[in-house]
Amino acid sequence: MRTSLFAAVSCAALLTAAAAPAAALPAPTPAPVVVSAVSETISDAELRSFAAAMDSVQPIAAALNGAAPTAEQQAQMAAAIEASGLALERFNAISTAVSTDAVVRARLNLATTEPSPAGSAAAAVTDAEVEQFVVAMAAVQPIAAALNGAAPTAAQQEEMATAIEASGLARERFNAISGAVSQDAHLRARMAVADARRAG
């Protein structure tokens, strides 16, 4: 059980990093839409297009150093956005959603992360197991945090085991998924989406 504790603590750190908002995103242009309604309609393809547009727009925005863009720079940014396949209004709506909605941020990270290699332990983790693992981690994390690196007592081990099994995962499967999470960015991104949905 101590192995699963350390795996859980490692996973907690990795999942927290995966769920953190991207620091490089510029401030979004306000769009006259309800963010929650837009968030529900954003496809993974649109998120990939948004990421491609951001890659093209960021160097132009960075060169501004806080100054207002010239007409030429505005045209360059608009052309970069439209080249990604998004209309300007849709880009602005997605930008607002990414800035204000943790689920959309997590989905953006997932959509732009290389998929887990076929046949890998991470690729074998089902969506149901992702949900169960996130529930188990939410229950195990406070116990692990209270240890401050110390070995768990028998009572704490039992408490963690009960929390894991209450999620629907066997301890052995929890440990296997913990190992896969530590080695696979796509699985961490899947976990971050599930965690954001659970918290939302």
Blueprint (SSEs and pairs):
Layout lengths: L1 H18 L15 H7 L2 H21 L6 H13 L4 H13 L1 H10 L15 H21 L6 H13 L4 H13 L1 H15 L1
Helix pairs in contact: 1-7, 1-9, 1-10, 2-5, 3-4, 5-6, 6-10, 7-8, 7-10, 9-10
What does this entry look like structurally?
By secondary structure, the chain is mainly alpha-helical. It is built from 10 helices and no strands. Helix 1 (2-19) packs across helix 9, helix 3 (44-64) packs antiparallel against helix 4 and helix 5 (88-100) crosses helix 6 (102-111). The longest helix has 21 residues, at 44-64.
Sheet with the most strands? none
Order of helices and strands: HHHHHHHHHH
- Tally of helical runs: 10
Q: Structural class of the helix and strand makeup?
A: mainly alpha
Backbone CA Rg:
20 Å
**Which whole number gives the mean pLDDT?**
82
Q: Report strand %.
A: under 5%
Shape: elongated
Distance between the termini: 30 Å
Number of strands: 0
Helix content: over 70%
Poorly predicted ranges (pLDDT <50, ≥5 residues)?
Answer: 1-35
Brief descriptors of the model:
200 residues; mainly alpha; elongated; disordered N terminus
In a nutshell, what does this entry contain?
The chain has helices at residues 2-19, 35-41, 44-64, 71-83, 88-100, 102-111, 127-147, 154-166, 171-183, 185-199. It starts with a helix and ends with a helix.
